[in-house]
Amino acid sequence: MVYIASWQEYQEAAEALYEKSPNKTRYCVKWRQSADGAGKLVLKITDDTTCLKFKTHSSVFLNRFDALNLTLMQKMQNRRPTQASPAPLAAAPSTP
Q: What is d(CA 25, CA 41) in angstroms, rounded to the nearest whole number?
């Protein structure tokens, strides 16, 4: 197991690990509340050969964590973000 200190490195490594073996990769999120009110967030992603971990006590990483979750979930669903598509054209009446 490797704890990665930099968020950017962890995010890039996690996405690369998932893309390398999407059928075997697992992603685990743990939140531990301590007695003093502070919490610890631990993220783990593994494909049984490589295990990457990231931990933080800072709430600054929560937005980044949400963005990573969204990215991984989109890849796991095999969907791309939807964009607004133009309205379909109404069918013109046909003349005999």
A: 20
The answer for residues whose C-beta is within 8 angstroms of residue 90's C-beta and 6 or more apart is: none
Alpha-carbon span 80 to 76, nearest angstrom: 10
Are 47 and 24 contacting, i.e. CB atoms less than 8 angstroms apart? yes
The tokens describing 9, both together, are: 């490195």
The pLDDT tens digits of the residues spanning 70-84 come to 888 888 887 666 665
pLDDT in tens, 47-75: 999 999 999 888 778 788 888 888 888 88
The tokens for 52 are 């990457």
* 3-class state of residue 62 by DSSP: helix
